[in-house]
Amino acid sequence: MSEIDFAALVPFVVITLYTPGPNNVSSAAMAAKFGMRRTWSYMYGIATGFFLLLTLCGLFSGGLMTAVPQLEGIVKWVGAAYILWLAWGLVKEKPGGDSTSKGEVARGFVKGMILQCVNGKAVVFSLTLYTVFFSSILSRLGPVLLSALVIAVVCLFSLILWASFGAGIDRFMGSSSKRRALNYCFALMLVVTAAQVAGLL
């Protein structure tokens, strides 16, 4: 990895992973809704899915983008639709009380993984990471797995930070009206994120 420009890589990774996006905003929203403890499975799902996405991009990105140049555009629009669906779930959620079953919370891991399949920001980030910064290790299993693991861990810390923010805000939202307003704020952030992912903003 001596050929990698870490001076350019580190700011790219930190800025991309720690700024608002589908993973961060949805983690904050889930922590505000369910609490930090019940959000861990969702965050682990995101980190696991992100690791798999990074690995696939590291192993196959060069040939895949050449074979299917339209893939990036398709992923962006499908991802935007999925993010809007997450936003709608926040809008229709009834504030007050815990109406969520254990099964729904348990499915958070799967939801987190699915989000990575349609997360345009994550896909574009992963493709850029390996084609621009990690081109010297493309298709080399060991270095790709190691780099994917490191980036996924960095992503997990970002999720924890955003989820802590969401859980912290929720402590001050005692009334149903305040909780509904918080849901609307997170939903609006997801709508803006969806527009950015689709390339509309």
UniProtKB/TrEMBL annotation:
Any coiled-coil regions, as ranges: none
Membrane topology designation: Multi-pass membrane protein
GO-annotated cellular components: plasma membrane
Keywords for the protein's UniProt record, in alphabetical order: Cell membrane, Membrane, Transmembrane, Transmembrane helix
Subcellular location, record wording: Cell membrane
Molecular function terms from GO: amino acid transmembrane transporter activity
Membrane-traversing stretches: 6-21, 42-68, 74-91, 112-138, 144-169, 181-200
Main location: membrane
BP GO annotations: cysteine export across plasma membrane
Pfam family, any one: LysE
Record flagged with keyword Transmembrane helix: yes
PANTHER family cross-referenced by the UniProt entry: ARGININE EXPORTER PROTEIN ARGO, ARGININE EXPORTER PROTEIN ARGO-RELATED
Name under which the protein is recorded: Cysteine/O-acetylserine efflux protein
Organism: Dethiosulfovibrio salsuginis
